[in-house]
Structure to design on (178 residues):
């Protein structure tokens, strides 16, 4: 479950996180310096994803950080001071597209495989490995939908689950050209 979207009783709460997209030089040690800024300020990072962009000299780091710890302005100011940081954007979840990947191995005997296949179809998930007593599912979705799928798979018996963390970009402008 994503701690930023799930309440203690399992209900979905409003966003309690900051979503940052940080464009950096693709060099060794940059990720460590960025993450250490959050640690020094006492911010919990819920999710951290990094990969090169279409320009191999640059990487994009997507950070989901605790919004209730403190205001984020100081961390952003410190990030701007790092020589390898090119651009920082705080993304409003309502103005961003987000995806996360989940791999989940679930107990699946002959009696339950059909139900699991139906859940996969509803959530756009794929079964990517099949064993005698288990199946491994791959799903790429918005984090809240993965939370829901994980909750629905839990009664079958989750053997293992791994989630990548969010990646996000701003939504595209849909206004008409003039």
């Amino acid at each position: 479950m994503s701690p930023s979207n799930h309440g203690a009783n399992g209900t979905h709460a409003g966003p309690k996180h900051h979503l940052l997209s940080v464009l950096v030089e693709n060099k060794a040690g940059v990720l460590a310096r960025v993450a250490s800024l959050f640690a020094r300020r006492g911010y919990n990072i819920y999710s951290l994803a990094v990969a090169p962009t279409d320009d191999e000299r640059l990487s994009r780091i997507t950070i989901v950080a605790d919004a209730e710890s403190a205001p984020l302005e100081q961390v952003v100011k410190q990030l701007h001071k790092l020589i390898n940081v090119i651009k920082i954007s705080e993304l409003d979840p309502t103005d961003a597209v987000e995806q996360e990947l989940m791999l989940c191995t679930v107990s699946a005997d002959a009696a339950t495989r059909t139900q699991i296949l139906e859940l996969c179809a509803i959530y756009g998930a794929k079964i990517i490995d099949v064993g005698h007593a288990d199946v491994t599912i791959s799903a790429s979705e918005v984090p809240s939908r993965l939370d829901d799928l994980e909750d629905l798979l839990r009664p079958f018996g989750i053997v293992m689950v791994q989630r990548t963390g969010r990646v996000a970009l701003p939504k595209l402008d849909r206004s008409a050209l003039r």
